[in-house]
Specification:
Blueprint: H1 4-25, E1 35-40, E2 43-48, H2 49-58, H3 63-69, H4 74-85, H5 92-99, H6 102-112, E3 115-116, H7 122-135, H8 142-147, E4 153-157, H9 158-167
Parallel strand pairs: 1-4
Antiparallel strand pairs: 1-2, 3-4
Helix pairs in contact: 2-4, 5-7, 6-7
Length: about 180
């Protein structure tokens, strides 16, 4: 007789394995984010993921990214660059298990509320990007997350993001 947790773990392993194989066999750049769009009220502004990657690696901003960065102080720019280069030491199995926790589910829901995706599959898109990034050669990090976001554009509502960040100063609200 197979114990239920053992069966669940085995099925999870199979699902993750098939996902990794699928990602490896069928890479398609059109499935991943090519730009990040910031929405502020009625205004939208986009930056390519390539520009963000270049800035993270070299510290040199494209004119498009430079126009954004000129609005913040040098210290914030360096913090932004560090955040772009950040990597988390979690493998895909660990990430999958973490994402099943109530805390992660609540956090994904809150972050999903700051993003805009036709069809309202924001939470699923975020979860997919995190798992795919953890499974990638680069490992889980900010840029690998963006490169694995499953649509050509990741749109973030800056007003909602600021509210979430202010609310999270003392931790994740509601937890």
């Amino acid at each position: 007789m197979i114990k239920l947790p053992l069966l669940r773990d085995w099925l999870t392993g199979i699902a993750i394995g098939l996902t990794i194989v699928g990602i490896g066999l069928f890479p398609n750049p059109s499935w991943c984010a090519q730009k990040v769009t910031a929405k502020y009220g009625p205004f939208y502004r986009s930056i390519s993921v390539t520009d963000l990657e270049q800035y993270a690696e070299t510290g040199k901003a494209s004119p498009e990214l430079g126009s954004f960065l000129s609005l913040v102080k040098e210290k914030k720019r360096e913090s932004f660059r560090k955040a772009l280069r950040m990597k988390l030491p979690f493998d895909v199995v660990t990430v999958d298990e973490l994402l099943k926790s109530p805390l992660a589910d609540k956090l994904l829901t809150q972050v999903a509320d700051t993003t805009i995706l036709p069809g309202h599959f924001e939470k699923e898109a975020l979860r997919s990007a995190v798992i795919a990034a953890a499974a990638s050669k680069e490992g889980l990090g900010t840029l690998s997350f963006l490169k694995n976001y499953p649509t050509p554009t990741l749109t973030v509502d800056l007003q909602k993001m600021v509210i979430l960040m202010k609310a999270n100063k003392g931790g994740i609200p509601g937890l």
